[in-house]
């Protein structure tokens, strides 16, 4: 045998209609006959692509937005009507958060040593090389100031027009949800540690108005709160709105349900945290729009952490991968887990390819149909379609694993959306855009 994966391994009940070799993407969102794609940082500084998908076998690019700031990326995009929102977030660098730590560390070392610390002494405490310190100091003097979100008029898909750039703080906006009236933004803000929720009124898109904030108790340092966790482990990843509730994935803080019936006073209704023992952070949480078996059900999905080497991949053997959860939220004050759905490493020929990730990442947000299928992006596991008609026993009904991007060890399926026709749209972190169809 030549080791080439068989067709049966790579697809079950799903067929590919078309593929475009687009640069890697963080999100795909489909509205009407158009797909909106937010791109992972790339050499071309491509931020957003808008595609005409009216003919799913021949998708075509109608416009692209390029970034004018090489330190930022815009990897998320959402559209309601003629309004598109994209995020602006700082690119990851080797320096990372070191500049944030430098003032306090410098003061501590100065007090202990009775003199200014050397670059070597600072580097030893920061875990970087002495030659990296000038770059860290430069980042300290000139902190990133391009974090926020941009609002575009996309009434003409061939010529998106920037309406406004709403700046926030820190490294900027990561993910968000939106409707015709409000944007639910996950961002850093002054006085808080880690991302919090900031809700903006966007009915006048020229001047977004902040209407409220929500955070995990312990995040508001300026308000005298003290976190009971290290660093930014507990923070908002993002929220998804269903009715008058926001469902929040809170990283290693688990999940929260937030009441926004009074948009100016969001309040926590329920919480559940499965960390520990489960090691992968809570990425996305969402309530189902209809009862299942007489119960209110919610689903959550974890984000598989990144293994940078084969050695690190080997050390992780034996621990659970990122997975899909089902919860009974009928009694919102006592959220109960019902089941988890995992994908075996045997289900993908690239499950142990490094560097890379195998487990779960994201599911399709917002239900456009009336069925009980959950469409999941599973990194090296590709697309997994899971039926939760019985939420205590999720069952996979189909899968599709795209080939790895050129020069990469494994596919890294990052996001998925489904349109009104039931067609499935898939993007990869490295490269690739697929349109698929489920054979029922």
What's the tally of helices?
5
What portion of residues is helical?
A: under 10%
Strand order of the largest sheet: 1-27-26-25-24
Distance between the termini: 32 Å
Which class best fits the helix and strand makeup?
mainly beta
Averaging pLDDT over every residue, what do you get? Answer: 94
By DSSP, the count of extended strands is 30
- How much of the residues is beta strand, in percent? 35-45%
The global form is globular
Radius of gyration: 22 Å
Regions with little confidence, pLDDT below 50 for 5+ residues:
none
> Major sheet: size, sense and barrel closure?
5 strands, antiparallel
Could you characterize the architecture of this molecule?
With 440 residues, this protein is mostly beta strands. It contains five helices and 30 strands. The chain has helices spanning 7-10, 98-113, 119-126, 133-141, 310-315, and strands spanning 11-12, 14-23, 25-31, 34-39, 46-52, 60-66, 72-73, 77-80, 83-90, 148-153, 161-167, 173-178, 182-187, 196-201, 209-214, 234-242, 245-251, 255-259, 267-272, 282-287, 297-302, 324-328, 336-341, 362-363, 373-377, 383-387, 395-400, 413-418, 424-428, 431-438. The strands form seven sheets. The chain has a five-stranded antiparallel beta sheet. Strands 7, 8, 9, 10 and 11 form a five-stranded antiparallel beta sheet that branches. A four-stranded antiparallel beta sheet has the order 2-30-29-28, with no helix packed on it. Helix 2 crosses helix 3 (119-126). It is globular and about 75 Å long. 46% of the residues are buried. The mean pLDDT is 94.
């Amino acid at each position: 045998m030549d080791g080439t994966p068989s067709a049966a391994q790579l697809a079950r009940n799903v067929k590919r209609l078309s593929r475009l070799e687009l640069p890697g993407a963080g999100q795909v969102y489909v509205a009407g006959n158009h797909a909106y794609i937010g791109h992972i940082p790339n050499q071309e500084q491509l931020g957003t692509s808008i595609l005409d998908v009216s003919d799913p076998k021949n998708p075509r690019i109608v416009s692209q937005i390029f970034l004018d700031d090489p330190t930022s990326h815009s990897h998320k995009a959402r559209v309601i009507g003629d309004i598109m929102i994209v995020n602006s977030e700082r690119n990851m660098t080797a320096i990372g958060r070191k500049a944030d730590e430098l003032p306090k560390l410098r003061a501590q070392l100065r007090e202990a040593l009775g003199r200014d610390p050397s670059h070597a002494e600072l580097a030893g405490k920061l875990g970087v090389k002495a030659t990296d310190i000038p770059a860290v100091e430069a980042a300290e003097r000139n902190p990133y100031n391009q974090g926020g979100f941009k609002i575009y008029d996309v009434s003409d898909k061939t010529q998106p027009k920037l309406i406004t750039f709403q700046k926030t703080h820190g490294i900027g906006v990561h993910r968000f949800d939106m409707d015709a009236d409000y944007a639910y933004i996950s961002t850093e803000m002054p006085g808080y540690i880690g991302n919090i929720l900031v809700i903006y009124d966007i009915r006048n898109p020229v001047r977004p108005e902040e209407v409220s904030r929500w955070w995990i108790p312990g995040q508001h340092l300026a308000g005298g709160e003290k976190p009971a966790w290290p660093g930014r482990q507990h923070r908002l990843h993002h929220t998804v709105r269903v009715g008058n509730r926001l469902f929040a994935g809170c990283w290693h803080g688990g999940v929260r349900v937030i009441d926004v019936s009074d948009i100016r006073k969001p309040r926590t209704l329920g919480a559940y945290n499965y960390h520990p023992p489960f090691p992968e952070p809570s990425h996305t949480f969402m309530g189902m729009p209809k009862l299942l078996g007489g119960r209110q059900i919610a689903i959550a999905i974890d984000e598989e952490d990144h293994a940078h080497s084969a050695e690190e991949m080997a050390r992780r053997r034996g621990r659970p991968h990122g997975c899909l959860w089902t919860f009974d939220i009928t009694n919102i004050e006592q959220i109960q887990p019902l089941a988890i759905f995992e994908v075996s490493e045997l289900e993908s020929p690239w499950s142990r390819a490094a560097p890379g990730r195998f487990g779960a990442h994201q599911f399709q947000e917002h239900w456009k149909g009336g069925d009980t299928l959950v469409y999941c992006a599973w990194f090296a596991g590709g697309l997994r379609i899971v039926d939760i008609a019985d939420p205590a026993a999720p069952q996979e009904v189909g899968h599709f694993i795209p080939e790895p991007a050129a020069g990469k060890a494994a596919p890294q399926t990052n996001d998925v959306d489904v349109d009104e026709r039931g067609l499935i749209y898939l993007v990869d972190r490295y490269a690739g855009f697929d349109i698929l169809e489920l054979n029922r």
